[in-house]
Amino acid sequence: MDATLQAELIAFCGIETEFNDAWGNATTVSEQHQLQLLAAQGFDIDDDETARLQLLERQLDFWQQPLQAVSVQRIDEPLQLLLQVTLEQANMELAFTLTTEDGAKQLFNLTPVEGELVQVVVLDEVEYHQYQHMLPQQLAAGYHQLSLNNTEFSQKLIITPGQCFVPQSFNSQKQWGIALQLYGLRSERNWGIGDFTDLSNTVNYLAGVGADFIGLNPIHALYPAMPESASPYSPSSRRWLNVSYIDVTAMPGFSLCARTQSLVTAPAFVQQLTLQRSKDFVDYSGVMQLKLPVMKSLYQWFVEQKGSSNKATSNAFKQFKTAGAASLQQLALYDALHAYLYQQDSMYWGWPNWPEEYRDPQSDAVQAFAVKHQAELDFYCYLQFIAQQQLAQAQQVAKDAGMLLGLYRDLAVGVSEASTEIWGNPDLYCRDASVGAPPDPLGPAGQNWGLPPMYPYQLYKQGYQPIIDLLRANMQHAGALRIDHVMALLRLWWVPKTAENAGGGAYVYYPIMDLLGILALESQRNQAVIIGEDLGTVPEGIRELLAAYNVYSYRVFFFETAADGGYISPIHYLVQAMATLTTHDLPTLIGFWHCEDLRLGKELGLYQDQAQLQGLYAQRHANKQRILDSLHGHQSLPGDYSRSAENLGMDQTLNYAMQRHLAATSSQLLCLQLEDALQMTQPVNIPGTSNEYPNWRRKLSEPIEQWSQNHDIRQLFTEISKQRKAAN
Question: Where is the MalQ N-terminal beta-sandwich domain (predicted)?
Answer without folding.
Answer: 67-161
